[in-house]
Amino acid sequence: MELTPSMPEGITPIGFVQNSPELQQLLTYVITNARAGELMAVDNYTEMVQLFEQTDDKIATVQQANEECKHILLLEKLAGVVGVSIDETYVHEQWVGLRENFHEAVGRRELATCLIIQDLMVESLAIAMYETFASEANGVTETSRIARQLLDDELEHLDMGLGRISTLLAEDADTVHDGLRWAHHRCMPLLFGMVKDSCDFLCREKSLVCETVAMGPIAIDLKMLEMAALDRYVSMLYEAGFDPAVVNPLVASMAAYDPSVREALEVTGVSAQGCDPSTGCC
Ligand SMILES: [Fe+2]
Ligand SMILES: [Fe+2]
User: Fold this and answer.
1) Model-level pTM?
2) 99-107: Cβ within 8 A, 24+ apart
3) How far is the CA of 118 from the centre of ligand 2 (A)?
4) How far is the CA of 9 from the centre of ligand 1 (A)?
């Protein structure tokens, strides 16, 4: 009797037999949410096109949206390779809030805010996630090959965003920093809320206890992803050329998200007083 399902030619047969049901749930969760992020990226880039005046910029942004469409298809392929299906019941509701925030910024025609949300914040999380999949811990497999392809595009998107933000900072730094404060306070609790809540979400909604998932051929460490996403975001903020006097209180405010974030911030040496918009600090 044949136990291994037949695989498309050229695909490394991982996951089909070795994955435990729990690991399959975990993979369903990660891939389905990555796909939800890619869908949001398509909507965001498409909506952002109208904010550019130059034809070259419009074309480049449409191309970015097109690449995000390809990522959706790649993630669907990845789901097939590891033997799981996309399942909308695993999608975090925070994606809706993020999309609404972006739409609000488009309504105000705030290009810098839009770039900060999509190109810098969302891409930082995407990069951390695809790096986890593409890591050497997962060997040279179809999974890591697809993740590497996704990662290369997202790194390029982050680079484009950094270049565009640098131009806007040179033109009007105050407006860009106002956009950064607004986007940080509105979007980072949602983005980090998702990553931080991942194990609780799986336990609450799917009765899956993260710690008990026996990793088979694919290693996914949600705690490591949380730290990698935080690290990516914080270093991006300092590399982007924003004023440290604006960035430091924003970064320090993230310590309120959870104790592990506080520990990570101690490592980065950020000691500024955290800011909270409810107190009128920014
Ligand atoms: Fe993408
Ligand atoms: Fe992207």
Assistant:
1) 0.86
2) 99/40, 99/43, 99/44, 101/183, 101/186, 101/187, 101/190, 102/40, 102/44, 102/47, 103/47, 105/179, 105/182, 105/183, 106/47, 106/48, 106/50, 106/51
3) 8
4) 26
